[in-house]
Amino acid sequence: MIEALFRREGDLYIPTPSSRGPWSPQHLHGGPVVGLMAHAMEHASDNASLNLARLTVDLLRPAPDAPLAVTTRLVRGGSRLQILEASLLAGDIKVARASALFMAHSEAVVPEYGRFSPAEYEPPTGPVDVNISEAAGWTNQYSPVGLHSKAKAVLIDGVHAKGQGIAWMKLPLPVVEGVETSPGVMAATLCDFGNGVGQLSLGGGVGCINADATLYLHRMPVGEWLGLDARSRMQETAVGLVETTLFDRQGPVGKVMQTILPMRMPGAEG
To answer: What is the 3 state secondary structure string of 9-66?
Structure first.
């Protein structure tokens, strides 16, 4: 069986080492958390023709490397629009909550002035064996194995912890073992890397961690490569924002917004 981020055992999802994050070897990366909740709500919808249009995930506390359960609730049903909620539980502790908006796709005649920009970048065409940590030069002996060591990447610009970066990324394994990952769930899993691609260093071994992620998709991504164009800024209040444009070979597909706060980098002294 192909390795995945999670194995399902009954009502529980068992994280694999590939789902871990760079901040702690005992905790999961935000991407698998966001992707798993998108997966659960996508499969809880009773209308498979609808597409993920908006996903908001609050990362209430670090998700542990332990069996997890996802509960879902249909808030508003319909043939053109549905809203679902989900909670991610580690035992009796809620570690994340989410809401998702699913919408029907149809056809519309859009004037030139109302269209999204055309594609700016061509995705990689040959095999890429470099992960995002290697491509960006991130050294992490504290937590070397996780999604940051699995997700493939080709850098286009930046990604130097100065609050700006553009990169192509690829999710090379399923979110849930034995289940094909949809384009929407793929985008949800990779969208958390906006804070990595656009990571903002504050100096002295202090970086930024995100407390949430909101993904907007105006169409489904095409192909296995997803582009991220991320920008991070912070006020003197120690609250900041990462804004990421997602794109594929056809052009923009959506946006990601993340709230960030300062956090000492793993292994940093001081």
So the answer is: ECCEEEECHHHECCCCCCEECHHHHHHHHHHHHHHHCCCCCCEEEEEEEEECCCCECC
Q: What is the DSSP letter of 114?
A: G
- Phi/psi for 52 (5° steps) reads -65, 125
Total-model pTM: 0.95
Tokens at residue 158, please?
Answer: 């930046």
Paired residues of 214 in beta bridges: 56, 257
Q: Following CA atoms 139, 143, 147, 153 in sequence, which dihedral angle do they give, to the nearest 10 degrees?
A: 10
**HSE (CB half, 13 Å, CA atoms) of 140?**
22
Q: Are 189 and 35 in contact (CB under 8 A)?
A: yes
- Residue 102 CA to residue 109 CA, distance in Å, equals 21
Q: pLDDT tens-digit profile of 135-193?
A: 998 877 677 899 999 999 999 999 999 999 999 999 999 999 999 999 999 999 999 99
